[in-house]
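Supplementary Text 2. Reproducibility record for the structural model of the 249-residue chain.

All settings were left at their defaults, and a single model was retained for analysis rather than an ensemble. We include the record here because the model underlies the residue-level annotations in Supplementary Table 4.
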Amino acid sequence: MPQGKLCDPSQPPDDLLRGGAWAILGGVLAAQHFIGDDFGMELFLRWFSGLYDDVTLDSDKWAAYMRAEEHLPAQIQTQLTTLAYGLRRLNDADGTCEGEIKVAEQKPGMLKGTFLWRFHAEVGTGGGNRLKYGSYFTGYDLLHGSNKDAGDFTIEGQFTVQRAGPPTSASTVTYDQLLYTFNDIADQNTKYGTDISFARMSHNMSACMGLTKRPKDYRLHIKWKAESAVKIELGPSDKAPPLKAFVNQ
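Retained model, structure tokens:
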């Protein structure tokens, strides 16, 4: 039997180990209920079940949860502001704009179209000891950072740029029909020894419980719509601010 394994998957687990594994899982879920939240429990159980490869969550419940995250609004505002400077350059016809931009209408002083903007986002970064030890309790802790390989964090929607006067003068960029998507991979964070140990324990529990599937990483996409339009005012002498660098976790 490989070192670190309590149960041999090729053999039926005995009743003592089976009962112990169910008791441990019950303790984990109880802790998640009292210390964490139902969203973390949902993400964990999807991983523990081993049944999922790709999951999209777009319910009103998840939309409200992501809107309530305290760190995302500032990140989104920063990114939309940076994009606004690029769109103003396009409107002034003196530059290019990053992102996936499709222009639907353009005339002197006005530009309309659609966009897709991608960046790395982080949630739940104020979780105290979670930063040192890792955590499987809240949904925010489990998500932590968007994953580049899964698509990172995206904003898509419509834009309108209106210029008050000649090129380089003050402009207003309005975003509408915004859709946010947090793309991630539900897996163990190898930065934390506790995550590695917990993942190993979870595989052992699954085997001891006699389950046919083992915990498995899956791609995760959480989608929600903005509740209102976003308007960015740019002065005539404004320069694009530097972006905060978020390291992909």
